[in-house]
Structure formats: structure tokens, C-alpha cells
Amino acid sequence: MKVSAIVYTSNTGFTAQYATLLSHQTGLPLHQLKECTLPQGTQVLYLGWLCAGKVQGLKKAAARYQVEAVCAVGMAPECDPAKLVGDNHCNGLPLFYLRGGYSPARVRGKYKMMMTMMKAILSKKTDPQSREALEAMERGADWVSVPQLEPVLNWLRG
Ligand SMILES: Cc1cc2nc3c(=O)[nH]c(=O)nc-3n(C[C@H](O)[C@H](O)[C@H](O)COP(=O)(O)O)c2cc1C
Description:
- There is one protein chain.
- The protein is α/β, with parallel strands linked by helices.
- It folds into 2 domains: about 5-105 and about 145-155, Rossmann fold, CATH 3.40.50.360; about 105-140, no CATH class.
- The chain contains 6 helices and 8 strands.
- The radius of gyration is 16 Å and the shape is globular.
- The N and C termini lie close together (about 10 Å).
- The structure holds flavin mononucleotide.
- Flavin mononucleotide binds near residues 51, 74 and 111.
């Protein structure tokens, strides 16, 4: 195994679900970043939810631990890997995109305000992707699936 723990940050639970699945499949211990007391420099796999293209908590995790690979959890059907690497300054690290979900009832505060603006922008668009995104934002969606973890598991075991 390339890491000794899984560390994650989740706002509404989808990233937590992926982190838990990975922990169950690998036997690696699981820690939430905000409560994590692992020793400085521990080699970890980090998972964070995407907010405006940024993997939440990654900077803090990288300052404390040796992040060996990153999973970004978002709601987009797919994600441009080069953009994800550039936006998150994680050149050279394995970076995996996982499609999580969207739970309108669990999004609060400033994040809710950001999504209200996003919905206003999307509601003026007519292309199928924008329609799908708007529908997910209004009704909620859950795309968490075990097969999406295959590349991450292969990397961990490789
Ligand atoms: C304010 C806000 C910004 C978001 N920005 C993005 C984004 O840039 N790209 C993306 O794919 N998903 C984005 N999402 C969707 C979340 O990343 C998605 O719901 C994710 O599954 C949340 O994971 P969590 O349940 O672990 O918090 C955003 C959600 C919110 C509330």
C-alpha cells in the first residue's frame, strides 16, 4: 500500500461515502481532516469535495501530511484533468476525479448563496449539460458508485 491512511473533507457527505468505501476496501484507517491527529508527514491519500474548482482542505492537508494522491469529488459528469491539476497546484501527484452528488437540503450558508447564483446563471442556458446540472441542483442527485473507485484502488495497490 502506498499510503498509511485516508484523510478527507466532506461538506454534505458524498466525499465521506467515497472515503469510507476506500477504507473498507483497503483496511486503511480513515480520518476527517478537521479532527485528524496523525503525526506530521504521514503518507496519506487525500479526498476533498470540489468548490469552484478547488479541492477543499487540500492546502491544509498538504501542509501537515505527505499527500501522495488526491481524489476530487464533484458533481460534474467529468472533469478536465489538466485544469484540475492547475487549479489545485498538485502537479506530479496522481489526481482522480470522482462524481459525488448534490444534496440541496444539506448545502448551507455561503455555499448555498454561491449555488443560488450558479442556478441563476444556469437557468438562462439551454444546452443539455446546463439543464442536467440545474435539475441536479434543484432536486438533488447521487452518483456515488463503487466502480468509480477502480483507478484509485489500482493506484493504491500498485
Ligand atoms: C458552492 C459549491 C461549489 C461547487 N463547485 C463545484 C465545482 O467547481 N465542480 C464540481 O464538479 N462540483 C462542484 N460542486 C458540487 C460538489 O462538489 C458536490 O456536491 C460534491 O459531491 C460535494 O461533496 P460532499 O458531499 O463531500 O461535500 C459545488 C458545490 C457547492 C455547494
